[in-house]
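Box 3.1 — From sequence to structure: Glutathione peroxidase
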Amino acid sequence: MSVYDAVEIDSLQGGPADLSQYRGKAVLIVNVASKCGLTPQYAGLERLQETYAARGFTVLGVPCNQFMGQEPGTSEEIAEFCSATYGVTFPMTEKVDVNGEGRHALYERLVTTADGEGHSGDIRWNFEKFLVSADGEVVARFSPKTEPDSPEVVAAIEASLPA
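Predicted structure (token representation):
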């Protein structure tokens, strides 16, 4: 089943994000935070967006405040920070929980995928990355410390781009 089926989430600007719009694209879904030691990864995520968007790819940022309160801002504050500090142009969703009883349905589907080290289940920290193929299947999971433009992420993206 596609991660886009029956999953409702709002955009950071409000209103439905309609995940079905990403059918036919490769999508790197990342739980993000503005006040984290890994926050500079926004720059690498934006480079991926700029490099691959024309080839059927997008990054989808999903703000989360579950890790030491590192995403405390409002939707407006998050959007302003991302735009002003990192020039983020990729889409962002509303702030959600990625772990626990309130885990968003999107993450219920994502966390069953294991990363290269065999970790599945709960998100470990901000900037954990999931690559979703054009048909909506999760094809890779990357640790929070794996840089967005690392060779393994880039290779996985290139292999997942639509024909």
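Summary of the box: The mean pLDDT is 95.
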